[in-house]
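Quick start: read one record
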Amino acid sequence: MIFIILIISFSGGYMEKWEIEVKEHWNKISDSEWYQSLRTDDRLSELYNNPETAFHPEMLSLMKKYIGNFTGKRILLPSSGDNHAAFAFALMGAKVTSADISERQLENAKSISDSWGLNIEYVCDNTMYLSKIDAAAYDLVYTSNGTLTWIGDLNEMYRNISRVLRDGGYSAMYDMHPFTRPFTMEAWKEPTVRKSYHDVFPDLHWKVQDIINSNVSAGLNIIEMAEMSALDASFWYTYDELKSLKSEEHATINDWKCNPMAAIPAWIGIVSQK
């Protein structure tokens, strides 16, 4: 599980400095060993042959429940990251726009989608503002794991998500559950509380109420929420730890009797409608 610690000030010209730093960070990370492991032939072949593997099964079911078939739907993915979800939606027939603050992330993704013959639009943009995205253009805006920890103003993000959705369109978010925030990074080894749930920094600084209230303030109607368990060991271990993990450790990590942290939800998903 990767935690990013970021303390942000948004006053005056500091916002521009922060945006540059985040862009540079992800341009560098995009070519790291960890990210290259997400672009191996085996990993991409699995995704190409079964696009649904890009999603947590419960989150995919939730989206299908309200959105139905993705074919022909216009879908925007802000903070698209590794772009596995963008590839998956396109493979399932959607008209996809992938937006990310990192040019390198988009370049790496485009090389893959071009090789597959996918027609994905790539836009370098800040998820909080979506300033390069047309208003009232999308049937679905999907944000996935790792987006919220980088967002300094959740109300602003959801205002702009609402702006780019057509009337009747949906916002779907899938991210790490805020219930994990009080615990240390390796709490599954020995559960240790590091702070109150109500403390803001240093990371994972949004509470469930913040996500819900930001949707509501943006005029989005929340229609269903899901709280989901981790699917595999990748939630609990860093990339380097996973490389040396024993099979028996894989087998027990999501059993709350062996790992008390597995007793609380790992992921949260929310679908709302404009």
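Residues 14-273 form a domain with the Rossmann fold fold (CATH 3.40.50.150).
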